């Protein structure tokens, strides 16, 4: 038998319900396998909250590591019939021994909400061997203490789909805020230079040679008239 510890920290992006407006959410933790399931735990109801915080720890005994699943169901508390707002299924065979899996998960299975759930899951004495650089603890409580004294150590183990939102509770600091990244500056590639295109120019005709000859002078009383050049284009006379 292996020991499994789960902490339901909180939720965000729950959204308003169609019937009651602001929801009163709570979480059911269901333990089971492919053949049967059993509700093991139910958190307290967070009244009128879109970003509730519970920070409640559940502990299980796991017999079959290969087939066991932990199912998290987010519900809205109503007077008559409660509304299912989302489901997340966790297979325990993917856990690492003594390393807390700290994550935000997106709930599926219903159109009533697009909520996300903040979970911390620890396989105490079963699972894959941890890496030398992993932060190893013996309990969820030890992990919470490490988060309070050294948040950077916890942030390296946090897997999140986005930055953590504010909870409607003063206990929100106990879940650990994920580290914020530095956005990269956009890189703009320079415009390509236009390619040079060869242009064929036909050969120019050779220049025409200009020749001229004198017009013989005309006799007269007043003497010869001034001679005007007479131009002929083409080949020179033979």
UniProtKB/TrEMBL annotation:
The keyword Protease does not apply. It comes from the Eukaryota. GO terms for cellular component: membrane. Gene3D superfamilies: C2 domain. Keywords: Calcium, Metal-binding. The keyword Calcium applies. GO terms for molecular function: calcium ion binding. Residues 1-105 form the C2 domain. This is C2 domain protein. It comes from Leishmania braziliensis.
